[in-house]
């Protein structure tokens, strides 16, 4: 089950990471920080777009957001960037479409935008002058979390035009490095998510999930689902992309539409990341961030449940795809072959330009206190 799900989503990960690598090669983190000086609506839109284009694992997204805060980006805008870089990214949408259908992709992206709006409102209410100043002072201490090397990595190519930045030897090298660094930072979460989903799909009866999500009462399920979804994510501690296979299992097991969406959003409040917030911004700010994030996730899931329900867009059947029929010569296989070929080309460039040494150097600074 795990292997088949992994084969089914491989090409989506390859092309998602490739697009992210290209964008990171032409726009530096420092340039991104300069684009986020305040929390005005236009800036929040920029933060959302930049985050969606710069996909990262949850740990790397949190580290990059702290790095941007230290480079004088607005605190709220940096947090929005962090959310967008895990919940509005291309590979997440593709994998959702493969396993759960396009309605879940649309719901996650629409819900991500709703969540960002709620998040901005909540942060303006609770993260004011003194709290933000304390969080920034703690951030400037430089206490390490995880993926610090990933956050500090900046190989963006300078040039007078986008064409010069992208279609050059340095541009290809930077793209290859970002691509394989993303794989290095995400492979464990993806593999863990697939293993958990495979085990749960194979061993846990659907009646268990039906009981947890109150599937026997459709009205109660819609209320309970968004409240429980993020809490399940907290204890599975897998990144948003790695969450999707388990989200498919939960949907087949009876979780409400909003509950599944809330579960997918829950990757940024898992216990290890809450501890990183404590190191980055202090205990008080970390606790408030956790509560604020949870409220925004639940609120967005309720909105999506209501809107998609009224629009008749909630799937009537629970038939998430796990490729139970096995492998075949279909579009998945052909896309995977192309993706593996592109990955091999980028791996050659990565190995030929000192990539392994850089990766070892980056990892040597991770998880230090």
Describe the overall structure.
This protein has 369 residues and is mainly alpha-helical. The chain is 76% helix and 0% strand. The protein is built from 19 helices and no strands. The longest helix is centred in the middle third of the chain and has 35 residues. The radius of gyration is 20 Å and the shape is globular.
Secondary-structure-based class equals mainly alpha
Strand content: under 5%
- Proportion in helices: over 70%
Terminus-to-terminus distance: 38 Å
Low-confidence stretches: none
- Compressed to H and E, one letter per element, the order equals HHHHHHHHHHHHHHHHHHH
Give the overall average pLDDT: 83
Global outline: globular
Briefly characterize the structure:
By secondary structure, this protein is mostly helical. It is built from 19 helices and no strands.
Key structural traits:
0% strand, 369 residues, mainly alpha, 19 helices, 76% helix
Layout of secondary structure:
Elements: H1 2-26, H2 29-34, H3 41-53, H4 58-70, H5 75-87, H6 90-99, H7 102-126, H8 129-139, H9 148-152, H10 162-166, H11 169-203, H12 206-212, H13 218-236, H14 240-253, H15 257-265, H16 271-281, H17 283-310, H18 331-352, H19 355-364
